[in-house]
Structures are given as C-alpha cells and as structure tokens.
C-alpha cells in the first residue's frame, strides 16, 4: 500500500491512524503542500488525483481520494480490527461524528481556503485567525455536546475500541491546538483524546513522527 | 421516517433523492434556515441536533445528522435498490466522489459560511460572489476530470444505476446554477445531470417541489 501524504494534513493523519490500528504497512510518499507552489498542484500528482488534495491511497490497482472513502475501504477490505460497529444505527452515530469533522470543520480551515482568504480576498492575519477560531469553537462545542449525550459512549467516542470518529477527532484536536484553541475546555473530547494518546497506533501517526516533519 | 428539511439545502436534497429512489416514505418537517434568526439555532432543534444543521433524519428511535451518514444508513437498513456497488474498490470510487462534493464544495458555500464572510468579516457582495464561484469552478473542474476518466462510468456517475455520487452531484449542480455557473461547461457532469433529470425520484426531490418552497 502507498499513501501520498503530508505530515501536518489532518486528513492524512486520519488514514495513518487507521492503517496503524489495523496493522497495515504502507509506503509513505510525501507531497509538500507548501513547496514549489504546492506539489499537489503539479502535473504528476494531478494526473493521479484530479482533486489535487492529499491524502491519496493506492492499494494494488485501486487508487482512492478522500480520507473517509479510504477509511471505509480499509474497513471493508481488511475487516480485522473493525473501525465501525455492526449495527446500522450505531454505524450511523459514528459516521455522523466523523462526517461533522470532515465536512463542517476541517474544510473551512484547510490550507487552500486560508490562502484564498488572505491572498485573493485580502483578509488580514487577524481576520484569518478570527475565521479559524470561530469554526473551531463552533465545531468543538457541537461535537462535545453531541458526544456527551450519546448513548453509545465509552472510553472512546463510541464504545471501548477506536472507530472512524476517533480517527477524525484526534487530528482535529491537534489542528485546534495548533491554532491556539484550549482543547481542555471541551471535557468529553479532551477525555477521549487522552485515552487515544496512550495508544501506540495513534502516537505513531502523529505529525511530529513523520519522515517529512519540519 | 421523519426528515427535518429545508427545500433549498442541497444536503437535504440528497436525502430526499435517496428516499425516493428506495421508495421510502417520510414526513417532511420544514426547518427554515432564514426565518426567526434561523430555526436550526432554536432550542428545540438544537436539542435534537447539536450540530444545528439540516437535514436530520429520524427512523423510529434512531436519529441521524449528516446527510452522508443518512445515505449509508438507508443503504444498510433498506438494501433494496442499492446506492453503492458491492465491491470495496468500486464503493470507494463512488464515495470519493460523494465526499469530494460533501467535504470540499458544499461546506464552503453553505449559508452559515457566507453569512460569516459578509457579516463578521465584512466582505462585499462582489467578494462573496468571487469566493462562491471560485470554489464551484475548482470543484466542478476536478469532478469532471475525475469522472471523465473513471473506469466504472455509465449513464450515471458510476454504472447504469444511481449511487451516492449521483445523489450528491445533482443537488450540487442545482446549487451551481443558482449562483450563475454555466454547468454545461462540464460535459461529463452535465450528461449525468440530464439522465437524472428524466427520473421521477430525482424530479420529486427538487427544491421547487417541496412544501416549504418559496
């Protein structure tokens, strides 16, 4: 398996966690999002992925864009160490959490979006920071409330083993800290994060442990 | 089944298409995103969905936020008229398309995001329009390129029956037209849209046919 990757990309981080949890080895292929005008926009990478985003996963002849499509694929193709429960209603609870992070939080503070705001639209650094923190705080508040009251809660977001929700939550909290948000203000999320931190599969996926870390 | 809904919300539109394709009846519960400061922010709706977003699906005791979590749930719980192929690699191709729309396109031009840009950050209407069109054109170009070359193409995005990808594409093209983008400039997407337009399940899900349409 080959994973086109960027150490700090939180969607890349999700897939690294899932591979580690499942014990799947992969070749790490760095794509530098800030060098040479962004290597993801180069002809070579664009041919592989017209979406021009990392991560990109190759498993034999199968090439997959979008981190959540990868996580679902890995769970279907390598079902040992499942990352989703079996019951459709329980699966939906996990997915609504993962998707809230992937759809409503991460894309708004993505590198390409921040660059457009300050470059093309001329926002100041202070306005950019206000934008970032607004969406982080809105998102973390919603997630913390929803998880606190979730019927399936355990040591992890849902139950006592990691799921897609934890694979998305931990990178999102890393991202929030990077932008100065105090994650301990969200007690439910913070507790899950501390449990995940004890697990080797999560620790090895951390941006600081990757070959292209700066 | 009960679907909390807004006629023009493209994520609501996705779920209406899926229910119609599967022949599942639902009660339509309108949530007006622009009235009374946004009914999705009211106490009543926030208790049901702390994410404060439509759609929200209730099926008996199961309550689900996030449209793609609903589509996956409906496909698992009501597997007649499947919306995903069976092979994991083929499923991943469908999901990478649906997720590109749900993660990289729709959230950026969401009502709450546009309101923050013009309200809190003081962007002009011209700047707002530039932002909207930039992400629509970037996204439609990537999608058209990726789908044109996809091995599984048929009359629909993938194969000869509708999938999650079509449930997401048709509402996204409706949204693009609303903002003045010429969708016929994307021939692969446009062809799929025209096929879907012939199908009753898609037509009945159109915003103009909903009880809260303005």
Automatic annotation (TrEMBL), chains A, B:
Q: Does the keyword Isomerase apply?
A: yes
Keywords assigned: Isomerase
Q: Report the EC number(s), separated by commas if there are several.
A: 5.2.1.2
| Domain GST C-terminal stretches | 87-214
Q: What Gene3D superfamilies does the record point to? A: 1.20.1050.10, Glutaredoxin
Q: Which Pfam families match?
A: GST_C_2, GST_N_3
Q: Name one GO cellular component term.
A: cytoplasm
GO BP of this protein: glutathione metabolic process; L-phenylalanine catabolic process
GO MF: glutathione transferase activity; maleylacetoacetate isomerase activity
Q: Which domain of life is it from?
A: Bacteria
Q: Which SUPFAM superfamilies match?
A: GST C-terminal domain-like, Thioredoxin-like
- Domain GST N-terminal: residue ranges: 1-82
| Protein family | Belongs to the GST superfamily. Zeta family.
Report what the protein is called: Maleylacetoacetate isomerase
Q: Which organism is it from?
A: Trinickia terrae
């Amino acid at each position: 398996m080959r994973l086109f990757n960027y150490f700090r990309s939180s969607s890349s981080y999700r897939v690294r966690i899932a591979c580690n949890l499942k014990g799947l080895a992969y070749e790490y292929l760095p794509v530098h999002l800030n060098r040479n005008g962004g290597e993801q926009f180069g002809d070579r990478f664009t041919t592989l992925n017209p979406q021009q985003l990392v991560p990109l996963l190759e498993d034999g002849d199968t090439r997959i864009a979008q981190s959540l499509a990868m996580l679902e694929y890995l769970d279907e193709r390598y079902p040992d160490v499942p990352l989703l429960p079996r019951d459709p209603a329980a699966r939906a609870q996990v997915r609504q959490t993962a998707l809230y992070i992937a759809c409503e939080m991460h894309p708004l503070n993505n590198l390409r979006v921040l660059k457009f705001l300050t470059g093309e639209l001329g926002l100041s650094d202070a306005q950019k920071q206000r934008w970032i923190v607004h969406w982080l705080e809105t998102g973390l508040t919603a997630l913390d409330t929803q998880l606190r009251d979730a019927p399936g809660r355990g040591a992890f977001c849902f139950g006592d083993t990691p799921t897609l929700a934890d694979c998305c939550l931990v990178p999102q909290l890393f991202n929030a800290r990077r932008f100065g948000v105090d994650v301990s203000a969200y007690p439910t999320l913070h507790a899950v994060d501390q449990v995940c931190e004890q697990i080797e599969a999560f620790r090895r996926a951390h941006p600081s442990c990757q070959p292209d870390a700066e």
